[in-house]
Amino acid sequence: MLTIERLSKTYKTGDTALSEVSLTVPKGQIMGLIGPSGAGKSTLIRCINRLVQPTAGRILLSDMDIVSLGKSDLRRQRRRIGMIFQEYALVERLTVMENVLSGRLGYVPFWRSFLRKYPASDIQRAYQLLDRVGLMEHADKRADALSGGQRQRVGIARALAQDPELLLVDEPTASLDPKTSRQIMRLLTEICVERGLPAIVNIHDVPLAQQFMQRIVGLRAGRVVFDGSPDLLTEDALTTIYGEEDWNAMRNGDTEQAEAEADARDRLAALVR
C-alpha cells in the first residue's frame, strides 16, 4: 500500500507545484491522476520515486518512508517502484529483449549488466513478459524499429521485470492514436488486476480515464480537488478541476478530432501503398 501524507514541493523559484497532498492507494487499485497542465501531476509521480525531491511530507510504501532515505537505500527501494514513461525511455540501439532485461539492473552485479550476462531465470522471465505484452516475435528487434504502441509495451514489460510493488505511469497514451491508446490502457489495467498491483496513472485523456480507472484524483494548482470513482466525475467536478468549459461540446470535439485523425492516417496509408 502507498500512503502519501501532506506532500509538498516548492521550487527554488518560489513556485509551489504540490501543496499538502494526502492520498492512500491500496493494493490492487488503479488510480487515474488528472488535471490541467501545471497542476502537479508529473511532479507528484516524480516525488514518489524521488526523481524530484519533496519539500515536505512523507511517502510510505509498505511503511518505508521513501522521502527520508539516503542514496544507497533509495536505490534499493526504487526496485520496488516500476516507472512507465510518456516517451518510453528505451535505449534505441538495444534490442527489445535487452531493454526488458534492463529492468533487472537493480538486482544484478555491475559486471553482469555491463557484459549483458543476465541470469537464465531473468531471461526466461523476460520472455514470459514479452509474451504477456504481445511482443514475443519482436524480442530481437532494435527498439528504434518499433511503433509507438510497441515501444510502450516494451516499457510496460521492462517495468514489470523489476517485480515492483507499485507502478507509476506518466501519460502512457500521450503520443499514441486513440485505438492504440485504448489497447495500452486495457493491457495496463489487466496486468494490474492480475498481479494485485497498485498503480498511479497520470493521464490527460479524461474519457479514457473514466473508462479504465477504478478511482480518479483531480489536481488543480498542486492540491487535490477531486477524489472519487469515475461515475462521480460530473460536469461540476470537471469544472472544479479544469475551470469553466462546455464539457459536452469538448467530448464531441474529441470524438470528431479522433475520427479525423484516423481518416487522415487511412488516406496516408493508401497513398503509401
From TrEMBL:
CDD domains: ABC_PhnC_transporter. It comes from the Bacteria. Gene3D superfamilies: P-loop containing nucleotide triphosphate hydrolases. Keywords: ATP-binding, Cell membrane, Membrane, Nucleotide-binding, Translocase, Transport. Residues 2-246 form the ABC transporter domain. The keyword Translocase applies. GO terms for molecular function: ABC-type phosphonate transporter activity; ATP binding; ATP hydrolysis activity. GO terms for cellular component: membrane. InterPro entries: AAA+_ATPase, ABC_transporter-like_ATP-bd, ABC_transporter-like_CS, ABC_transpr_PhnC, MetN_ABC_transporter-like, P-loop_NTPase. PROSITE patterns: ABC_TRANSPORTER_1 (PS00211), ABC_TRANSPORTER_2 (PS50893). The keyword Membrane applies. PANTHER family: AMINO ACID IMPORT ATP-BINDING PROTEIN (PTHR43166), PHOSPHONATES IMPORT ATP-BINDING PROTEIN PHNC (PTHR43166:SF6). This is Phosphonate ABC transporter ATP-binding protein. It comes from Yoonia algicola.
